[in-house]
UniProtKB/TrEMBL annotation, chains A, B:
It comes from Trichoderma gamsii. PROSITE patterns: TYROSINASE_1, TYROSINASE_2. It is an enzyme of class 1 (oxidoreductase). This is tyrosinase. Its EC number is 1.14.18.1. Keywords: Copper, Melanin biosynthesis, Metal-binding, Monooxygenase, Oxidoreductase.
């Protein structure tokens, strides 16, 4: 069988429907004005796929199996990778984003086809037209793992990935609802996965003894019955996503502060190189890579979601975050349903980066591989895909809301999601250098004021003298009154000179953060007020002092 | 209906079958020579009970409802408690152990009757005799929450409480197995629990929005769909059971170091008072209570298992252990199936204490209530139980292995489970006082040697001079050679005098522990060896120095 990957069919004159943020989508589907139709179709389609024979290429097991275990080939192709696991999927190489782009499109297309099957077989005639319409505009939702959960300042797994039971429609007159086991919560098999070709993954975990995907449920020294369905300890995943620095290896992690900062760094470049962006691959002798890249961020999410410590840490370590799970092992990661939501976001980040680095494509070290075949995936012409086929993702009949925008608006969105409102950065301002480690608040030496979440600060402040913050590409401005502070400073220092202005950017963990120099500007402005000032020019603020980034120890 | 609580029926000449440690029982049932019969019967009986109408007094819901919500009365009785929740169950009072003793016997009896129903209705004739025999000797197993999981030095929830699916028998020829949803993992309802009379518990959690019991799954600020079946984040419970001191309130927790130490302290007394032992109740003006008591230990287990922080801690706190669950709320705790395993152990600890404090019963402040009615429970004569009816627990046709032993052997067991091998206490020995905070190892000032896990140390050491450890009631002895250490010490100090001997007891977290003075003795012994020593008396060790507990800062 040669399965042709085309994306979900659409008329050529229609715009590509968008892939949505999974929490936004879920909240819209289940909210007061939501009709739950797409939710029902997605859930029922996944149930159909998960119930198909594991030897069926288009079963959930068959599709997930392309990524690694059980290494049994797919669509008539056997793997041409000569790695020990002989898996098709590409990691640590420049086709990492493009191979997975096609993989997601395949999954999306098979889900759509299962939706159609469900509608034709199980939905009463009077509902079929509406359901087909919803299926046609449905696209795989993405988990924006660097965006705080709605109304919180915390990163979390998607709602739909953490609920064991999901409420969906029973179509009829009237429409009622039912609760079903949620196929996005976990994937369960009838047989031991070992009997389906899933091998022991050694240090990563005894996945052959599982009958269900698990998050942090494989624990060395636990009775083996616990492993079979180790359960979904998803609070541990949430903890890891927010507190991952405990695992920091200084040689690898330098500058990798929070997930939001990492994604912001990844996307803020322009004129970047595909070789640097796309993969963790490092060719000896080539230029130093950027300090982060797509695949590196992606790898960490895998680890934090699944759990990557099957063996218990030494007695002196704390128990915190001990445990293994499917997402942390390349060979079995795709069996956990959250894999698809995760990789959909990886594709979205790729698309965003492409829009901002329009002319960048396989270049330098990566130039040679844009014609490499993305085995085992066949395009609409029956040929194996190459990366060039999917440079334009809309050829696969989907898009993202953000990539429909122009560059300026994309940069605004990025800042909103990952740098400004999304992340509680705080700028602390000092007249004179602060102390090296004490740069947090009122009690710190030379402290003047803080700006917290730029945009809201603008709304709330009655401006006098000024601070201006600038982010590359976009500007967000806040102004704080400094008259009294300057006066006090001059009194204390017995001087008439303007104070030296310093600032420290502090992240949500109270650590100082170094953004690039152009990202932030903190300056002191003066205006002449009161009697004897007549010229309109004198009523304008004039920059009096250029602020500088303070030197702090951490 | 008046349901008479008699315990599981047995012939008067038979000994009472024992309630077993739940992990031991599960491992025996599922091990190579286990027949899984009792496991199958227990699971099937619970499924029957959980499927009964919630208005049936003998349904799982009906039995759990006696403890708190939905406050609808039971067995024809309405509550006589005038608390705001009008629940029957006794907390913060001296009948706490006896009320719950009858409650466990009731549950055990109803499970047995459901086993019988299952056997008669569903088991093929050729297996019925064997199954009835197993049901008759089955008793409710207990979760020994202060005992380390087998082969570990960590406290854990029982295996059977952490596996979503359980493998049980299908009786026939031959016997095969099947996997079923494990009724001890969680209790799930068809309706929202709010529709079954479970109210919002405010700070403790929105239990009315649940359809399943949860552990650490109720999280303020999470989408409400997550609450309905918040899942079983049981790794958080395990973490809390082992690392609870982070929650320590110094005014309450003084001396409460680990669960094992607490249980050891609870049981090591003799001639104790029921008033002190039984409850957290404190009558103003009465004598100072012992520093721990049964109900206090019990309360903490409830909190740690369920999760007791529905509202998120302040931003500066770590996320660690945030979350609420049924076990932490008196009103709904009994719905989590682990409740019964927990309270079975509370009953066992009571029975052990009774054996060791044979003449102690309701006394002092508690004397007046031994005739109070334990509503709504009726005894075999159709009267409401009073505490005196259950002073002898074997009248309810069950016993525990440990309480069949004599006092000396019970004390040995307690020490083994909770003080010696169970807990990795370490005794560090010094010639001269150690430094206040540095008392851990070779690098510490004046360090001589460590004794780790007394009994194994005895086996491994080639004895020379001696150390003797003594626990109240039992003795465990280890001997370490000190000849060279004494010689070095005398050389260094330029003295011929015997060294001063000090010791520090260190627990598994590296903290110094103060056991009572009689618990440990560390002394230095001498023997005269070599030529010129003829008298047999000279070949005996003689105590040279009395060791003392060192003064350390923590
Ligand atoms: Cu991958
Ligand atoms: Cu209780």
């Amino acid at each position: 069988m040669t399965y042709l990957i085309t994306g979900i069919p659409k008329d050529t004159n229609e715009e590509s429907p968008i892939r949505q943020d999974v929490d936004d989508w879920y909240l819209e589907q289940t909210g007061p004005s939501g009709n739950r139709i797409q939710l029902t179709l997605f859930v029922e389609a996944l149930i159909i796929m998960q119930n198909r024979s594991t030897t069926d290429d288009l079963s959930y097991f068959g599709l997930a199996g392309i990524h690694g275990a059980p290494w049994s080939g797919w669509g008539g192709q056997t793997s041409d990778h000569q790695t020990k696991d002989e898996n098709f999927c590409v990691h640590n190489d420049y086709t990492f984003p493009t191979w997975h782009r096609v993989y997601m499109a395949l999954f999306e297309q098979v889900v759509y086809e299962a939706m159609t099957e469900f509608i034709n077989d199980k939905v009463p005639t009077e509902w079929q037209t509406e359901c087909h319409k919803e299926a046609k505009t449905w696209r795989l939702p993405y988990w924006d793992f660097a965006r705080f959960a709605r109304g919180t300042n915390e990163i979390r797994l998607p709602i739909i990935a953490t609920i064991p039971m999901v409420t969906i429609n029973v179509f009829g007159s009237p429409v009622s609802t039912q609760r079903k086991s949620n196929p996005l919560y976990k994937f369960q098999t009838e047989s031991l996965m070992g009997d389906l070709g899933i091998r022991d993954q050694g240090e990563e975990g005894p996945f052959h003894k599982c009958r269900s995907t698990t998050r942090y449920g494989l624990l060395d020294g636990y009775n083996e019955d616990v492993w079979a369905d180790g359960g979904q300890n998803w609070l541990r995943a949430n903890l890891a996503l927010n507190e991952h620095p405990w695992n920091r290896d200084p040689t690898v992690w330098e500058g990798f502060r929070t997930l939001q900062e990492a994604v912001f760094q990844l996307l803020k470049t322009s004129g970047g190189s595909w070789s640097s962006f796309s993969s963790t691959k490092y060719k000896e002798g080539s230029e130093q890579k950027g300090y982060t890249n797509l695949e590196f961020i992606h790898n960490n999410i895998h680890n934090w979601v699944g759990g990557f410590l099957f063996r218990r840490p030494t007695a002196s370590s704390r128990l915190k975050l001990w445990g293994g799970g499917h997402m942390a092992s390349v060979s079995v990661a795709a069996f956990d349903p959250i894999f698809w939501l995760h990789h959909c976001n990886i594709d979205r980040l790729t698309a965003i980066w492409q829009k901002l680095n329009n002319s960048s494509w396989f270049d330098g070290d990566s130039e040679g591989v844009h014609h490499s075949q993305l085995t085992p995936f066949h395009n609409r012409n029956g040929n194996l895909f190459v990366s060039d086929d999917v440079r334009n993702w809309t050829d696969l009949n989907y898009d993202y809301a953000i990539t429909k925008k122009d560059e300026k608006d994309i940069r605004d969105d990025i800042a909103t999601l990952y740098a400004l409102e999304g992340s509680p950065f705080q700028i602390n301002i000092f007249f004179g250098q602060p102390d090296g480690k004490d740069f947090h608040d009122l009690g710190s030496r030379n402290f003047v004021a803080s700006v917290f979440n730029f945009s809201s600060a603008i709304k709330n402040s009655n401006c006098g003298n000024c601070i201006e913050q600038k982010k590359r590409g976009i500007y967000s401005e806040a102004q704080l009154p400094a008259t009294l502070a300057v006066w006090s400073h001059q009194e204390l220092e017995k001087t008439n000179k303007e104070p030296e202005v310093f600032y420290v950017v502090v992240n949500s963990r109270g650590e100082s953060v170094t953004l690039d120099d152009e990202a932030i500007t903190v300056d002191l402005y003066r205006i002449n007020e009161g009697r004897g000032v007549d010229s309109p020019e004198d009523h304008r603020y004039k920059k009096a002092v250029n602020g500088r980034r303070a030197t702090v120890d951490y």
